[in-house]
Amino acid sequence: MIGDNELSFLLYGAGALFLLGIVLSYLARSKGSSGDDTAQKLEKALPGAQCAQCGYPGCRAYAEAMANGTAPCNKCTPGGQDTVDTLAEILGVSVPTDESDDAIFTPRTVAIIHESLCTGCTKCARHCPVDAIKGKAKVVHSIIENECIGCAECVNKCPVDCIEMVRLEPTTANFNWELESIRFKGN
């Protein structure tokens, strides 16, 4: 049997641990780590496509690099100019426009599904960050070309390799007239 002394010791110990937890939680939320806080804001502003077109393995890594000052804010191709402007605003900088870089217009890349090979498994549609794949279970799927951002997530998830990334030839029907040049460092 537990005596009164042991019971009061357990209750006081539990109360002390509870108060310690509250204090530690408060300190964790109010710590002055602005870099991590900035990285979280930047990550929320990114489209979340995890496409690695910026040169980083995902949006979180790119956000951390921007917060640390090791990456410019104009590398998110799927996000477009609105995302770049938002990122620059969060960082308190102007959008980089270094004229010594080579300006290259990258052709738009989209996924296509080879319908003769598609089994309708829906794995590609479940992993598309922008819902650019239409189709139901056990029915051949297709890509909504205007919605596809070219992240290649569907290619990675397709078990039968029926999806391919292709570069679109620019035409007046599919050209993005608001396209800004993407700058790459020249050799």
Structural notes for this entry:
The chain has helices at 4-30, 34-45, 59-68, 80-91, 123-127, 153-157; strands at 102-104, 109-113, 133-134, 142-143, 163-167, 182-184. By secondary structure, it is of the alpha+beta class. It has a two-stranded antiparallel sheet with strand order 1-6. A two-stranded antiparallel ribbon has the order 2-5. A two-stranded antiparallel ribbon has the order 3-4. Strand 3 (133-134) and strand 4 (142-143) form a beta hairpin. Helix 2 crosses helix 3 (59-68) and helix 2 (34-45) packs antiparallel against helix 4 (80-91). The longest helix has 27 residues, at 4-30. It is flat, with a radius of gyration of 24 Å. 20% of the residues are buried. The model is unreliable at 99-105 (pLDDT under 50).
* Strand residue percentage: 5-15%
Number of strands: 6
Unreliable stretches, pLDDT < 50, 5 or more residues? 99-105
Strand order, main sheet: write it out.
1-6
Major pleated sheet: 2 strands, antiparallel
SSE topology:
Blueprint lengths: L3 H27 L3 H12 L13 H10 L11 H12 L10 E3 L4 E5 L9 H5 L5 E2 L7 E2 L9 H5 L5 E5 L14 E3 L3
Antiparallel strand pairs: 1-6, 2-5, 3-4
